[in-house]
Amino acid sequence: MIEVGNVLVHEDLINNDFVCNLSKCKGVCCVEGDSGAPLRKDETHILKEIYPKVKPFMTAKGIEAIEEQGTHVIDTDGDLTTTCVDGNKECAYVTWENGITKCAIEKAYELGEIHWKKPISCHLYPIRTTHYPEFDVLHYDRWHICKDACSFGKELQVPVYQFLKDPLTREYGEEWFEELDKTVKSL
């Protein structure tokens, strides 16, 4: 582990390459799994607030799921997650463009309708964060559906942490990311 401030970064984020390759995977991470995307408590309030502005970008079945279950749910493990449709598979906020999943929240953000890009767990993926009272631990979540992202990252020689510079900076700040990058380059 590499310690940067109050964050422990697993070496897998440095020693493995990753670049999303949506032309290959079609964004299947947004429609597969056993529950929705993890949420922080403060994000549940944001989802409630922005839902009316995100709704026009959502699918009919996504809207139906939100109207029935709410803008977020508590999954079988007791964790806050995004609402899903189709038996806890597809995220209710998924929309489709040319056969590729997109995020209705992010679409509303890109068009200036809202000022929040999407849940941080989505933005950081394939990094998963374990929060402790005094520090966070960043892990690399390996999932077979991301094999094309791994090979594309290897081809481009982009480590996981570098691919996720924007969300890491969003979460921990520019100075934190610069310190991580400096530490990695000194290894």
From TrEMBL:
InterPro entries: Rv0495c. Pfam families: DUF3109 (PF11307). It comes from the Bacteria. Belongs to the Rv0495c family. This is DUF3109 family protein.
